[in-house]
Amino acid sequence: MRVSLVYPGIVGKGFDSIGQGMDSGWISHGLAILAPCAVQAGHDVNLIDLRALKGWDHFRATVAQRRPDVVAVTMMSVDYNPGMRCLEIVRAVDPKIITMVGGPHPTIMPDELANHPHVDHVFMGEGEETFPDALNRLARGEALPRIIPGTHPDLDAVPYADRNLFPDEWRRQGYTVTSPEASFVEELPPPFVTIIAGRGCMYNCSYCQPAERHIFGRKVRRRSVASVMGELRELRARYRFNSLMFHDDCLTEDREWVEAFCRAYAAEGFTQPFFCQSRADIIVKNEDMVALMARTGLRGYFIGFESGSDRVLRFIRKGTRRWHNLEAARICRRYGISIWANYMMGIPTETKEEVLETISMLKEIDPDYYSPAFYTPHPGSDLYDYCMEHNLSLIRNHDSYRRNPDEAKIKGIDYEWLAWAVAESQRRTWPNRLRRAIRALWRRYAHPYKVVRRLMMRHQPTTAT
Ligand code: B12
Ligand code: SF4
């Protein structure tokens, strides 16, 4: 079958936006893995990435020109509107084209899609096995159910993500691509890649779960270190990548895995800096692991600090406390690890005093990167259900599922004041500015890592193929 996979992620940066940060510069691992699964089963796969197109007419013309038998769209909740517009256009171009949707939103809200006239089949959960199987059945002329539940494949048996799927399509649409994905911080120089070592998360934060468990199951599954190293070797050979980022929800929850990975990474001569996600309590409980990661190449952690109030942290079931957040930040500083601080304001039940606690915590943490959000109730999470039960949600349109701090999300919150709070949370104090200037000078001229890198760069080309 001829299959067009569609990435509809334009709610953030819009059409024609490739290269503009993580929203428009990163690949979808879901589609990049499903593509080789379908190809291995004998199907002919191409990608349509809305971010690389000029507009809806361009999408219409692309579908008409590629003449697929099947159009398969991936979808987070925020992607619903552009995703469904794609399918409306596909129907208009040729009603015989079979339409499929999969990803977080169809998994969490299958009924919203299954009853939609533009959707033929809804895939829930992971699709490595079900997607090629469905294509095979269609090719044999068999009927498919409307809703197809997912399976949890052995991650070491799943093909590596097809890294060329996205950059090749971006080039086809006229973009010059020198890095497989867009790097987003100075610590991670291009060529830059993202990678996923596992799926699922053992924690139970109420603003997130059980959505993740619906997609990936109750048990966290991690690829073997050998599988991840094999992919990294391929990426090194193909792109000579200079940095990477792990997408795993919480790579550091399994310290044995992390230690084995660090040993293998160093033993195979990798020195490329990397970022990953972690949690404040894990950092505090595992300082020796943090030190090992820093020696191996870790340059930054994404940390969900979320709030500076212990009551709010309890309310959202974060499993951390304010002191964890502060201590984790101190540990990161000790090992020269940059901090990307995720935090939320406008959480239901949160008072202004508690928001001020978040601000004072951030002044102490002094993160390298601020990532504030107005709390957004995401479908599939317990806190979303709480907002529905208490009639608190102001979200009337799927586009508003972005956590952008510029739009009212929850009833009863003073968003004008919250806008001030978001700005204030990011205002650095003078002592912090001075400390940062000193650290920047040290990193620029004296840090041993810089010296090693400079020596290595002399022997390495810097652009991707
Ligand atoms: C990396 C990531 C990002 C990256 C890149 C996303 C991308 N290009 O794919 C960035 C930083 C850009 C991002 C942004 C956002 N993200 Co995000 N992100 C993730 C993260 C951590 C990993 C995604 C991933 O690669 N997973 C691994 C792959 C293999 O899984 P997958 O994509 O789901 O695909 C599998 C299945 O879902 C299925 N499948 C997927 N599509 C299809 C299609 C078909 C046809 C079939 C058959 C199957 C199928 O098969 C795939 C293989 O098994 C996930 C959490 C997670 N662990 O998944 C959150 C997650 C997807 N993000 C989420 C959210 C909320 C957002 C934001 C809205 C947050 C914000 N900042 O506002 C934005 C929206 C961006 C936008 N479009 O405007 C939520 C989505 C919840 C929801 N209800 O939709 C998640 C689940 C995190 C969470 N627990 O809350 N994100
Ligand atoms: S917010 Fe992060 S740590 Fe909490 S359950 Fe979700 S993925 Fe896990």
Q: Helical proportion?
A: 40-55%
The CATH architecture of the largest domain is: Alpha-Beta Barrel
Quickly count the helices.
20
CATH class categorisation of the largest domain: Alpha Beta
CATH superfamily of the largest domain: Aldolase class I
- Provide the low-confidence segments as ranges: 461-465
Please provide a written account of the structure.
- The structure is a single chain.
- The chain has 465 residues and is of the alpha/beta class.
- The protein has two domains: 2-148, Response regulator (Rossmann fold), CATH 3.40.50.2300; 178-449, TIM Barrel, CATH 3.20.20.
- The chain has helices spanning 21-25, 29-40, 56-66, 80-93, 104-108, 110-114, 130-139, 165-172, 211-216, 225-239, 255-267, 280-285, 287-296, 310-315, 322-334, 352-365, 382-389, 415-425, 430-445, 448-457, and strands spanning 2-7, 44-49, 70-74, 98-102, 121-123, 147-148, 192-195, 198-199, 221-222, 243-246, 274-278, 298-306, 338-345, 369-374.
- The chain has a six-stranded parallel β-sheet with strand order 2-1-3-4-5-6, with helices on both faces. The protein has a six-stranded parallel β-sheet with strand order 7-10-11-12-13-14. A two-stranded antiparallel ribbon has the order 8-9.
- Helix 7 links the parallel strand 5 and strand 6 (147-148).
- Helix 3 (56-66) packs across helix 4 and helix 11 runs parallel beside helix 13 (287-296).
- Residues 461-465 have low confidence and may be disordered.
- The structure holds cobalamin and iron/sulfur cluster.
- Iron/sulfur cluster is lined by residues 201, 203-205, 208-209, 212, 249-250, 279, 304.
